[in-house]
Amino acid sequence: MATTDNDEDDYMSDAFLNTETVKDVRPGLLMTHEQQRLHNQMKKRKECQLINKTTGLKALEEQQRQEGLEKAIDSTNKGFSLLQKMGYKPGSGIGKNNSGRVEPIGIVLKTDRKGLGREAALREIREMKKSMIRNRRSAGPSVCEYRERRAQEAAEKLDRLDLFRCQRVCRQMDLEQDIQEPSEKFFWPEEVPEVDADESEEEELNITSLNEQLEILNFYLRRTYNYCVHCGTVYEDESDLMEECPGPNRQDH
């Protein structure tokens, strides 16, 4: 069947699809590259104008604020007129005896989101730290602490000498009894440690302090050989040691 001019095209035909593609006139659609370039230029120009406008307003506000701060208030100000009625004179201090503040409190413009008391707290903390450092540097050891430390060092030196004497005597007496190895490593004078030394014995040696080693070795010499390192004497027997020796410690002698 033939078609007439008034008949509509079939929506499935190529003619219909080509017509719809050419007639794409959606709002805001930029058809050419030139239109896209002009649109981007106009967009950037509006953004710059907005920034300049905002910056200009801030600068104007700052200028007006500064002019207001530099300009002295006059009688047209209600607060100033009330002060004048109470006897205030320009240039003099406020208060009954004119001993108060002459200049008004300055304005500090806050532009960040930090707490109002944060800066003051940080300033106080810095002063606290400086004060702590000064006190720590100036406060040396007390007289009592110094004396106690020196007495402890002297006592440790004497214990070291007594321990060395006990070690030499113990080695001599053990060898006389055909004892070829000490019962404890610290019973004899210290020698160069071997590479394959037993770690358990080293740990045990580190556990006992100098004073404890001296106490143990002194007990061994007194009970085994009836010897007192402080007296420097080998007694006949245990009874003779108990009667003649003042005691096992240096303080007893």
SSE layout and pairing:
Elements lengths: L13 H9 L10 H38 L7 H8 L32 H21 L4 H34 L22 H9 L2 H16 L1 E2 L4 E2 L3 H7 L9
Antiparallel strand pairs: 1-2
Low-confidence parts: 1-6, 20-25
The radius of gyration over CA amounts to: 51 Å
C-alpha end-to-end distance: 144 Å
Average pLDDT score: 75
Number of helices: 8
Estimated helix fraction: 55-70%
| Total beta strands | 2
Q: Helices and strands: which structural class?
A: mainly alpha
The percentage of residues in β strands lies in: under 5%
* Helix/strand order: HHHHHHHEEH
Oligomer: single chain
Sheet with the most strands? 2 strands, antiparallel
How would you describe the shape?
Answer: elongated
Query: In which order are the strands of the major sheet placed?
Result: 1-2
Characterization of this structure:
This protein is an all-alpha fold. It has a domain at 158-189 and 208-252. Helices cover 56% and strands 2% of the residues. The chain has eight helices and two strands, in the order αααααααββα. It has helices at residues 14-22, 33-70, 78-85, 118-138, 143-176, 199-207, 210-225, 238-244; strands spanning 227-228, 233-234. Strands 1-2 form a two-stranded antiparallel ribbon. Strand 1 and strand 2 (233-234) form a beta hairpin. The longest helix has 38 residues, at 33-70. It is elongated. Mean pLDDT is 75; it is low at 1-6 and 20-25.
